Amino acid sequence: MNPPEISAEILIVDDEEQIRRLLRGTLTAAGYRVREAGDGQSGLDEVAAKPPAAVILDLGLPDAPGLEVLQRLREWSEVPVMILSVRAQEQDKIALLDAGANDYLTKPFGGGELLARLRVLLRRPPGPVETGVVQFGTVTVDMSRRVVTKDGRDVLLTAREYALLRLLVAHRNRVITHRQILRELWGPKSEEQTHYVRVYMSRLREKLEDQPHQPRFLVTETGSGYRLDVG
């Protein structure tokens, strides 16, 4: 097989050096460029720093389960992800695919099958470049590390506050309705409880806006919902 004319870059996230060596040899022989990470957080950092064409993600990572790493990645990136695992049970595959994996390859695997599946992943039209870091004013939201800072200092958010901010960041410069926010954060049975959103939006403004009562970024769209205006 001739190597691709344009060498796509693949990120391998696996803590086993032997597996990384095997994958690296297979991929480079096929003409791909390869980057590597030995744990989940390093993998997230690599995607945030420079999004690859695709990620090959092992489930047995030392710092976090592969499912958790995938879920965190999907909070801010749509990069194609192929799961590698010794787990062959159907329920495991379903859980990973539901969480946003694009493919699932069971170990042991053949190099030919790996490359064929990778070619299928790379046929997807490329999405927007995602850095995992969003800035507005003096606020920085690092989605890969779940860290929020203002004026260079960490901002402590509750889990619900962060979930609301993450939703606003994911849909930045677009209006998110009250019902959409309630459905995403509290579930479909809470769609009429709009006061929940008002309370948590007020808390976010107190922590992130210079003038919480005259917000510049966390904007109310009267009668509709809210919008994060990042310019």
Strands of the widest sheet, in order across it, are 2-1-3-4-5
Quote the beta fraction.
15-25%
By CATH, the topology of the largest domain is: Rossmann fold
- What is the string of helix and strand elements? EHEHEHEHEHEEEEHEHHEE
Tell me the number of strands. Answer: 12
State Rg.
20 Å
List low-pLDDT spans: none
Biggest sheet layout:
5 strands, parallel
- Looking at the overall shape, the CATH architecture of the largest domain is 3-Layer(aba) Sandwich
Characterize the overall form: elongated
Q: Can you say what the CATH homologous superfamily of the largest domain is?
A: Response regulator
CATH top level assignment of the largest domain: Alpha Beta
Structural domain count:
2
The secondary structure category is alpha/beta
Cα(first) to Cα(last) distance is 46 Å
Please give the count of helices: 8
Helicity, as a percent range: 25-40%
**What is the residue-mean pLDDT, rounded to a whole number?**
89
Give an overview of the whole structure.
- 39% of the residues lie in helices and 21% in strands.
- It has helices at 17-29, 40-49, 66-74, 90-98, 111-122, 159-170, 178-186, 194-208; strands at residues 9-13, 33-37, 54-58, 81-85, 103-106, 133-136, 139-142, 147-150, 153-154, 176-177, 218-221, 225-228.
- It has a five-stranded parallel sheet, with helices on both faces.
- β1, α1 (17-29) and β2 form a beta-alpha-beta unit.
- α6 packs across α8.
